[in-house]
Design a protein that fits this description.
The structure holds 2 protein chains of 2 kinds. By secondary structure, chain A is mainly alpha-helical. Helices cover 69% and strands 0% of the residues of chain A. Chain A folds into 2 domains: 3-58, no CATH class; 76-133 and 176-315, MetI-like fold (Orthogonal Bundle), CATH 1.10.3720. The longest helix of chain A is centred in the first third of the chain and has 35 residues, at 18-52. Chain B is mainly α. Chain B has one domain (77-309): MetI-like fold, CATH 1.10.3720.10. Helix content of chain B is 74%, strand content 0%. In chain B, α5 crosses α14 (242-252) and α14 packs across α15. Classes of the chains: A mainly alpha, B mainly alpha. Chains A and B meet through α2, α5, α6, α7 and α8 of A and α1, α2, α5, α6 and α7 of B.
């Protein structure tokens, strides 16, 4: 290592063949490449190798041969899925629940951030922040159990309070129509505080002079929120909305699965839970499950790429 | 850190010097009401859980508890700590969290540092290799078969290795390295004959303690709350993490938690009701105890993540 080497990266790109450049780079940076070795092997084994496993979607699985068997069946499993009576149901449930969740999660973090930003008492603000971020760290299992306990028709908080007014509550967990509301609003409860951080960051970037000038012009605090703070968070909000739309078909497994029961299953069976049930329970059908999973992954990929492009076009920034 | 500080201070400094008009007084009043409403909505379910967890089983089952324990009792907690599988699950979760986080942090840092170096040839290709995994994956069955083929099925490794690196955390880490380690520093070290390894270990890592704390906390919380891998890959109850035990007791009601307590079936049933709340508390308390002290690190992670690397 000497002072001369410092300039070598630039030298790398002048009048050398690709091979020579490669050798030079390796010689110069071998220690960095060595550091990367384990992560790259890890990514190849645990992320790219399973992608090769997707060929199962076009094959009949054979326990002996694993993913490398050669009993190709073409699009049989995809056609089976499209013709299945479950197809419309799981796609609709996935889309409806997820789309609802995306929409419901927009306004509350924004209002919370604007409100926190306008608070004058710093202790009160800090306490409110501390508390509002807290649900983010509660596990999915606990959130679902808290809900189940709270809506327990006999001893739950909702039933106890309703009883004070002489009312009896129905078993909301057994209700098909209530499933999506339960899912979405518990998610909002859990995520709103955490999601407000990003808007608070945007608000912190507001030039204080803007506020001072507005005050000089006689603007009230509310007018300043409306005409200075609110427009500040809009670009952030639009990027987040667009990017979240991209994930609208990739609704997570855990929470929905834990909330499922025999009575709400018609509304709560989504693609990921159905994939699990086909693949790993009962008469486990690996190939069929892989095909449903692949169908979902491809749609997700297309949606993400589309929304990312849209976001870049509208705001100049996307996920990648 | 500058980012977080700013948020806490900007509006404060400004509004403190300003005289308040009548209209603004109404605004601040309504604003306080909004925040109070948020606080109440968030706190009520949590307070209810706390109150139930300290109440007598009969009172819980009879639906007497709102926000204060009725017939104060520690029976629920006693039952939690007498259940063999809950204790095993607790121990397992601690193990997965500690060992898993350690591996996570090492693998993440050794990936993030080289990728933060703008001069590194091939950096963009490797970065794309990582980033693509965020938007496309093999899915349930291919991953399941891989874990089985590697002999990790139903072993502790299944809880630690398959999620060894989160690309999202890696990007946070990479952004931090790229923006906080001045090129001049490295060039100066190079002139002094410092190798890349040495610079990484002696300079880059000590200067990045903050971001390492951030990602370690993210990974640790994820391990503590992890459910899916255990659910898919473990069948041996002695390897179950706490979350899986919680699910059995709280959601599926499949575990006879009451076995440990008494033979009187009515008492048992009621005790299980309190036990559920106590169990929720016991699983959340470690995070809630640590959380207020490390909250600023969590927030910082969001800030770094928001800057595009």
């Amino acid at each position: 290592m000497n002072g001369n080497k410092k300039n070598s990266p630039m030298g790398l790109y002048t009048s050398k063949t690709k091979n020579e450049r490669f050798c030079l780079a390796v010689k110069r940076y071998w220690q960095l490449y060595l550091l990367l070795l384990i992560p790259i092997i890890y990514i190849l084994v645990f992320h790219y190798y399973p992608m090769l496993g997707l060929q199962l979607a076009f094959k009949k699985f054979n326990a002996k041969e694993g993913i490398w068997g050669d009993s190709w069946v073409g699009f049989k499993y995809f056609i089976k899925f499209f013709n299945s009576y479950k197809f419309i149901e799981v796609v609709r449930n996935t889309f409806v629940t997820s789309f609802y969740a995306v929409l419901a999660q927009i306004p509350i973090p924004i209002i919370l951030a604007l409100s926190l930003n306008a608070v004058r008492g710093q202790k009160f603000k800090k306490a409110a922040q501390l508390l509002s971020y807290m649900p983010h760290f509660i596990s999915t299992v606990v959130i679902v159990s808290m809900m189940m306990q709270m809506f327990n028709t006999r001893s739950g908080l909702v039933a106890v309070i309703a009883a004070l007014f002489g009312k009896v509550v129905p078993d909301i967990f057994a209700s098909e129509s209530a499933f999506k509301h339960l899912y979405v609003w518990s998610t909002v409860w859990q995520s709103a505080g955490w999601a407000s951080i990003i808007y608070l960051a945007a608000l912190a970037g507001v030039d204080p002079e803007q506020h001072e000038a507005a005050i000089v012009d006689g603007a009230t605090r509310f007018q300043r929120v409306r005409y200075i703070d609110f427009p500040t968070v809009i670009p952030t909000a639009s990027i987040l909305i667009i990017l979240n739309m991209g994930r609208v078909m990739s609704l997570g497994f855990e929470k929905v699965y834990l909330m499922q029961n025999d009575l709400n299953i018609a509304a709560s069976e989504i693609i990921s839970t159905y994939t699990y049930k086909i693949g790993l329970t009962g008469n486990a059908d690996f190939s069929y499950s892989t095909a449903i999973g692949l169908f979902n992954s491809v749609i997700n990929l297309i949606l993400i790429l589309m929304t990312n492009k849209l976001s870049k076009k509208l705001s100049g920034s996307g996920l990648f | 850190m500058a980012g977080t500080k700013k948020i806490e201070d900007s509006s404060h400094v400004l509004s403190a010097k300003m005289p308040i008009g009548k209209e603004d007084k109404i605004f601040y009043f309504i604003n306080t009401l909004i925040l109070l409403a948020v606080i109440v909505v968030i706190a009520v379910p949590i307070i209810n859980v706390i109150a139930n967890s300290f109440s007598d089983g009969d009172a819980v089952a009879a639906g007497k508890i709102t926000f204060w324990p009725v017939d104060f009792s520690l029976e629920g907690y006693k039952a939690v700590f007498e259940d063999k599988y809950i204790l095993i699950g607790y121990g397992n979760t601690i193990f997965y969290t500690v060992v898993g986080t350690l591996i996570n942090v090492v693998v993440t840092v050794i990936a993030a540092y080289p990728l933060s170096r703008k001069q590194l040839p091939g950096r963009n290709v490797i970065m794309m290799l990582f980033a693509f995994t965020m938007i496309f994956n093999g899915g349930l069955i291919p991953n399941f078969l891989l874990v089985k083929d590697l002999g990790m099925y139903n072993t502790r490794w299944a809880m630690i290795i398959p999620g060894a690196i989160s690309v999202y955390n890696m990007v946070i880490c990479r952004t931090f390295f790229a923006t906080n380690l001045p090129d001049e520093l490295r060039e100066a070290a190079e002139v002094d004959g410092c190798s890349e390894f040495r610079f990484f270990i002696r300079m880059a890592l000590p200067l990045s303690k903050a971001v390492i704390a951030v990602i370690a906390l993210y990974y640790a919380v994820a391990h503590w709350n992890a459910f899916f891998n255990a659910f898919i890959y473990l069948t041996n109850k002695n390897l179950y993490p706490l979350q899986l035990i919680l699910r059995d007791v709280l959601i599926s009601n499949t575990v006879n938690a009451s076995d440990v307590v008494s033979s009187d079936s009515i008492v048992n049933y009621n005790l299980v009701e309190t036990l559920k709340y106590s169990l929720i508390m016991v699983s959340c308390i470690p995070i809630w105890c640590v959380y207020p002290f490390v909250q600023k690190y969590f927030v910082k992670g969001v800030m770094i993540g928001a800057i595009k690397g």
